[in-house]
């Protein structure tokens, strides 16, 4: 029997890419590939790329440049580009870097097996269609291997919102929700393999409306309640949400579904109504803050996180100040801030850019404020009791690490906790990026 072929996948960008990479590894596993963590050892290298900001695409091209010499050393090596850069750039990737054999967009992963056969036969393969069929129907079933206790599960893909800065509606296409039964089957399978926490993924996950049993339309809240019935599944999370889709039933689930964790990522992008309008966000700062009030009324201890863009075209110091004011009012437990990056093909790309030095300055100021709140919220956790899902051993002997219900990383010193246990822990110290706790 010939030795198995080795597959190296490098994943950029969001959690959905992490999920897609796992599914691609399983699909190619059915073609006889086993995973390797070394590019120089691989028969197939796949870069699963992100196109959300400019630098991400440039990073892919430089990585491809670095990989090219490996092909001289191993003429059988095949190099593929998947993900959103593949979708956006298509054949241009092969023109710019001829070492690339395969380009596959995020909606075509079910065709990867065939494409692999093509490139093995010495041809190149390109697929960036948006086929009508569900790619997940055709992806190989997951092998029954044990899994880490926390897993991602994509339930919805694509976006119909068309924020003026964002490439997602173009790279991931229109909003599509997977049917409820498929998601429940996949969740049960994950639980059988040791998973206790599932994060439901979607670019607009709270706009989920999937086909349920008897043709009934399920909202995200209905899906969460159905998942909560699965014995052994202890924790449910979802990301990323849009403020306009925070429906009453979802708030009610936050109030009453014990398995739904008290953490919510709800990007606002800016605190200025003028900029929000120019971003085509279809909400105001005020309407966003009122949504936050409703969420906190439903679940007072919830930890919120958000995304912000600074330096959007036309952003003045006063607009930026409105963003700082909003952050001051909400106090995020986590927040991600980005300097606006021009994405060709999006409406904002046609507009004038602001002074890059001003954008850099604003990024530093927003990050300083966010970090201050983040640290305050971590410090406030000292003395509190949390429940930690243990994910892996820590660096020190006898130490275990995991996540609290609020998604804080917690190091547990002492005790007998094993991977997959959910243990009550008293927080004793807040460090820069994690909390230290003792078992109760
Ligand atoms: N420039 C900067 N940040 C962006 N994001 C999306 N598009 C851009 C862009 N063109 C940010 C948004 C989004 C997050 C995933 O990435 O804040 O919520
Ligand atoms: Fe992009 Fe806006 Fe859709 Fe989020 S809601 S994926 S930022 S277009």
Automatic annotation (TrEMBL):
Swiss-Prot/TrEMBL catalytic activity: N(6)-dimethylallyladenosine(37) in tRNA + (sulfur carrier)-SH + AH2 + S-adenosyl-L-methionine = 2-thio-N(6)-dimethylallyladenosine(37) in tRNA + (sulfur carrier)-H + 5'-deoxyadenosine + L-methionine + A + H(+); 2-thio-N(6)-dimethylallyladenosine(37) in tRNA + S-adenosyl-L-methionine = 2-methylsulfanyl-N(6)-dimethylallyladenosine(37) in tRNA + S-adenosyl-L-homocysteine + H(+); N(6)-dimethylallyladenosine(37) in tRNA + (sulfur carrier)-SH + AH2 + 2 S-adenosyl-L-methionine = 2-methylsulfanyl-N(6)-dimethylallyladenosine(37) in tRNA + (sulfur carrier)-H + 5'-deoxyadenosine + L-methionine + A + S-adenosyl-L-homocysteine + 2 H(+)
Localization terms from the record: Cytoplasm
A Gene Ontology molecular function term of the record: metal ion binding
Family named by the database record: Belongs to the methylthiotransferase family. MiaB subfamily.
CDD domains: Radical_SAM (cd01335)
Domain TRAM: 379-440
Cofactor binding annotation: Binds 2 [4Fe-4S] clusters. One cluster is coordinated with 3 cysteines and an exchangeable S-adenosyl-L-methionine.
Subunit structure as annotated in this protein's UniProt entry: Monomer.
Function according to Swiss-Prot or TrEMBL: Catalyzes the methylthiolation of N6-(dimethylallyl)adenosine (i(6)A), leading to the formation of 2-methylthio-N6-(dimethylallyl)adenosine (ms(2)i(6)A) at position 37 in tRNAs that read codons beginning with uridine.
Keywords recorded for this protein, A-Z: 4Fe-4S, Cytoplasm, Iron, Iron-sulfur, Metal-binding, S-adenosyl-L-methionine, Transferase, tRNA processing
The protein's Enzyme Commission number: 2.8.4.3
SMART domains (UniProt xref): Elp3
CC cofactor: [4Fe-4S] cluster
Stored Pfam families: Radical_SAM, TRAM, UPF0004
GO cellular component: a single term: cytosol
Taxonomic lineage of the native organism: Bacteria, Pseudomonadati, Pseudomonadota, Alphaproteobacteria, Rhodobacterales
UniProt: [4Fe-4S] cluster 2 binding residues: 159, 163, 166
Keyword RNA-binding: no
Protein name: tRNA-2-methylthio-N(6)-dimethylallyladenosine synthase
Broad class of enzyme this protein falls into: transferase
Stretches assigned to the Radical SAM core domain: 145-380
NCBIfam families in alphabetical order: miaB-methiolase, MiaB/RimO family radical SAM methylthiotransferase
Domain MTTase N-terminal: 5-121
């Amino acid at each position: 029997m010939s030795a198995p072929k080795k597959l190296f996948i490098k994943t950029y960008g969001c959690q959905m890419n992490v999920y897609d990479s796992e599914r691609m590894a399983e699909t190619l596993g059915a073609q006889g590939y086993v995973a390797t963590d070394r590019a120089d050892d691989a028969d197939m290298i796949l870069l699963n790329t992100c196109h959300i900001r400019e630098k991400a695409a440039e990073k892919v091209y430089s990585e491809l440049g670095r990989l090219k010499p490996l092909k001289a050393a191993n003429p059988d090596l095949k190099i593929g580009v998947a993900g959103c850069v593949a979708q956006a750039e298509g054949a241009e990737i092969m023109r710019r870097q001829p070492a690339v054999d395969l380009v596959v967009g995020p909606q075509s992963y079910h065709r990867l097996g065939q494409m692999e056969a093509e490139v093995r036969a010495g041809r190149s393969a390109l697929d960036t269609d948006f086929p009508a069929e569900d790619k997940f129907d055709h992806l190989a079933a997951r092998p029954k291997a044990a899994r880490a206790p926390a897993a991602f599960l994509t339930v919805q893909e694509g976006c119909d919102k068309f924020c003026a800065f964002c490439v997602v509606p173009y790279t991931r296409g229109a909003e599509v929700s997977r049917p409820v039964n498929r998601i429940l089957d996949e969740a049960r399978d994950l639980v059988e393999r040791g998973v206790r926490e599932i994060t439901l993924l979607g670019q607009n996950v709270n706009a989920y409306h999937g086909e349920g049993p008897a043709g009934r339309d399920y909202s995200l809240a209905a899906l969460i309640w159905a998942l909560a019935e699965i014995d052994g599944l202890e924790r449910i999370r979802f990301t990323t949400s849009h403020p306009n889709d925070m429906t009453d039933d979802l708030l009610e689930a936050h109030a009453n579904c014990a398995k739904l964790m008290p953490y919510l990522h709800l990007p606002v992008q800016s605190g200025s109504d003028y900029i929000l309008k120019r971003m085509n966000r279809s909400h105001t700062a005020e309407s966003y803050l009122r949504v936050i009030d409703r969420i906190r009324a439903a679940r007072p201890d919830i930890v919120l996180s958000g995304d912000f863009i600074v330096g959007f075209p036309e952003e003045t110091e006063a607009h930026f100040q409105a963003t700082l004011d909003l952050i001051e009012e909400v106090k995020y437990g986590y927040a991600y801030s980005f300097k606006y990056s021009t994405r060709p093909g999006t409406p904002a790309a046609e507009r004038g850019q602001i002074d890059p030095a001003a954008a850099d300055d604003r990024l530093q100021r927003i990050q300083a404020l966010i970090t201050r709140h983040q640290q305050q919220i971590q410090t406030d956790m000292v003395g509190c009791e949390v429940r930690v899902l243990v994910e892996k051993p820590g660096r020190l002997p006898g130490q275990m690490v995991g996540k609290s219900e609020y998604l804080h990383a917690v190091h547990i010193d002492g005790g007998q906790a094993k991977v997959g246990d959910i243990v009550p822990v008293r927080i004793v110290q807040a460090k820069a990026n994690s909390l230290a706790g003792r078992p109760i």
